[in-house]
Amino acid sequence: MPQGGMEALTAAQNRDELLALKAYQYDIVCNGIELSSGAIRNHKPELMYKAFEIAGYGPEVVDAKFGGMIRALKFGAPPHGGIAPGIDRMVMLLCGAENLRDVTMFPLNQKAEDLLMGAPSEVSPRQLQDLHLRLNLPKKG
User: Fold this and answer.
1) 39-48, 56-65, 74-83: least confident range
2) What CA–CA distance (Å, rounded) separates 87 from 15?
3) 79 burial via Cβ count (<10 Å: 0-12, 13-18, 19+)
4) b vs e for 41-68, b when ≥16 Cβ sit within 10 Å of the residue's Cβ?
């Protein structure tokens, strides 16, 4: 949610002015380690349309990709936001660890795989059938 709302977006005349806009964001940092991050979310449909327009997307794209959110906001969803403390980051700091993987219970490797749990795993034909999905994978050459 940009500070200044629609007026701030429409007043910005160029890219540098747009990039200089501030948002309602909150972070908790300890010794250079981000422990928590949060923000007030954009909750005004006209502001969302304008922000996407600035990014090069028309209202038809916004409606197609974010229609559920736009409809909820048009019905008067209240301002919303939050902050999520990273307990794992706090533990990392307390333990003196240099990498989050050192204190994460089930860390993922660089390919987003959980080697301990063997995830992700192959999906069974039954699971695909239950969800009415069909795979069309490229042939292995």
Assistant:
1) 74-83
2) 37
3) exposed
4) bbbbbebbbbbbeeeeeeeeebeeebee
At 74-97, the pLDDT tens digits run 888 788 888 888 888 889 999 999
**DSSP at 85:** E
Strands of the chain, DSSP E: 25-30, 33-40, 81-85
Q: Residues, the chain, total? A: 141
Calculate helix-pair angle for 59-74, 45-54, nearest 10 degrees.
Answer: 160
Residue type present at position 77: A
In this structure, what token pair is assigned to residue 122? 């192959």
Contact between 92 and 103 under an 8 Å Cβ cutoff? The reply is yes
> Positive or negative CA dihedral for 60, 62, 67, 73?
negative
Across the strands, what pairs with 38?
26, 83
